[in-house]
Design goal:
431 residues, mainly alpha, Growth Hormone, Chain: A
Length: 431
């Protein structure tokens, strides 16, 4: 991962609180930005990597486990997953507040244990209602875990925290790819034992992640100002406006994994294997370029600019895909790959800006609570994205692709104004 022309300086910027002493530089994996320096940030990165291997394993094979092993219908799986996603929205803010008050590490460990227990419970599911209840419990634990992880990352990220969080995202994509490859073996075997090992493997990664997290030093909660409200995030209208806009923009994350495969198979003459190639291209670009994309995003102002830049990139990428409907196979394939590359560039900018905004606009004593609200926005976007993208990109066809890209441009243009509103309310505000 080439993240800078001067490797030693780049590594110091990304992972250290100061540059290395002359003649005593870091090992080459650290210098090249492949791993953080030894300490809490490396420990946290290892835990996140392990966790994302399990996520890639489970996400790739979960639908087949539920249909081919448990015996549920596709409609039942979709209904249960939708219900679980909606219920999971409500866990983030209260658990985030608990992490702010009691400690992020301890709260995160509890949520990891809950995720492991819930995932293990799927092995005993034999009916639709039990499936739905178990999945709702898992989704509640997932949302709670994400909210607790926010202040944990903030506490150990140090200076240039956006670069570190971008590194975590790039590493997570790589880990998820490893998990997806393992899931491919499970799908090929197509047996009850294989699918059970998939679910149990994900449960074990939660426990392994908890074992690594337990090695981190405790982060003392930040004392809240005496006049701070108990549920300050829910009263912060400027921040909620930013989260609303960011949630709309986050719908872009489903374009390549939901809308594009349906378009390739049903509305273009491009070869079907392009679905897999597009996913690989997107993953490789994120792994290689996410840290670079976040290098200059170090404030809420630069984050808003990054989100604004992402809009035109989405429009160009989605337009390139839209015009492939009536083209022969080879030109269509080329344009789809160009569209995927442009969309991924927009994704890199949006993610860098989104990560910075979720932390920079949150008061230090309420990182968990604000992280929970931010996660709620993204979870809601993920819940609504399939229906909205199905309408725009599949039902409406080429005009819908272009219209959806135009929505992203409009949201990006509005974002700097919402951020400036939020910045003004931060001056002398204790919330």
């Amino acid at each position: 991962m080439d993240i800078g022309k001067n490797p030693g300086t780049t590594a110091a910027v990304l992972y250290a609180d100061g540059p290395a002493e002359p003649g005593n530089g870091p090992p080459w994996p650290v210098a090249r930005g492949l791993i953080p320096e030894r300490g809490p940030r490396r420990t946290l990165a290892v835990a996140f990597f392990v966790n994302m291997i399990g996520a890639g394993l489970y996400m790739t094979g979960a639908a087949l486990f539920f249909t081919r092993s448990v015996g549920l219908s596709v409609a039942q799986v979709g209904l249960g997953m939708g219900a679980a996603s909606m219920i999971g929205l409500f866990a983030g803010i209260p658990v985030g507040r608990l992490a702010d008050m009691r400690g992020a590490r301890e709260t995160y460990l509890v949520t990891l244990a809950a995720q492991a227990a819930g995932m293990t419970g799927l092995l005993f599911v034999h009916s639709f209602w039990l499936f739905t209840v178990t999945l709702c419990a898992i989704q509640l634990a997932n949302s709670a875990s994400a909210a607790a992880r926010g202040p944990l990352v903030r506490g150990f990220a140090g200076r240039h925290s956006t670069a570190y969080r971008s590194y975590l995202r790039a590493a997570g994509n790589l880990a998820g790819s490893f998990g997806a490859l393992a899931a491919g073996v499970v799908v090929q075997l197509d047996t009850r034992a294989a699918y059970a090992s998939l679910v149990l493997g994900n449960a074990l990664t939660f426990l392994a992640c908890a074992a690594v997290i337990s090695r981190l030093p405790r982060l003392a909660p930040v004392q809240a100002p005496a006049v701070a409200g108990r549920w300050s995030a829910l009263k912060d209208r400027p921040f909620m406006a930013v989260i609303l806009l960011d949630g709309i923009m986050a719908i872009q994350g489903q374009v390549l994994v939901f809308a594009l495969p349906l378009w390739i198979v049903g509305h273009s003459d491009a070869p079907r294997w392009l679905v897999g190639v597009s996913a690989v291209l997107n993953t490789l670009m994120v792994v290689a370029l996410q840290v670079r994309a976040a290098r200059d995003v170090d404030s809420s102002t630069t984050a808003a600019r990054a989100v604004r830049r992402s809009g035109p990139a989405f429009l160009v990428g989605m337009t390139a895909i839209a015009v492939t409907g009536g083209l022969p196979a080879i030109p269509a394939a080329v344009l789809i790959l160009v569209g995927v590359a442009m969309h991924t560039i927009g994704e890199l900018w949006h993610e860098a800006g989104s990560l910075e905004l979720s932390f920079a606009l949150a008061p230090e004593h309420a990182q968990g609570q604000y992280s929970g609200l931010s996660g709620m926005g993204h979870s809601l976007a993920n819940s609504l994205a399939p229906s909205l993208l199905g309408l725009f990109c599949v039902t409406w066809g080429a005009p819908g692709w272009i219209a959806a890209g135009g929505v992203f441009v409009a949201v990006g243009l509005v974002m700097p104004y919402a951020v400036r509103w939020a910045e003004r309310t931060r001056e002398g505000d204790t919330r």
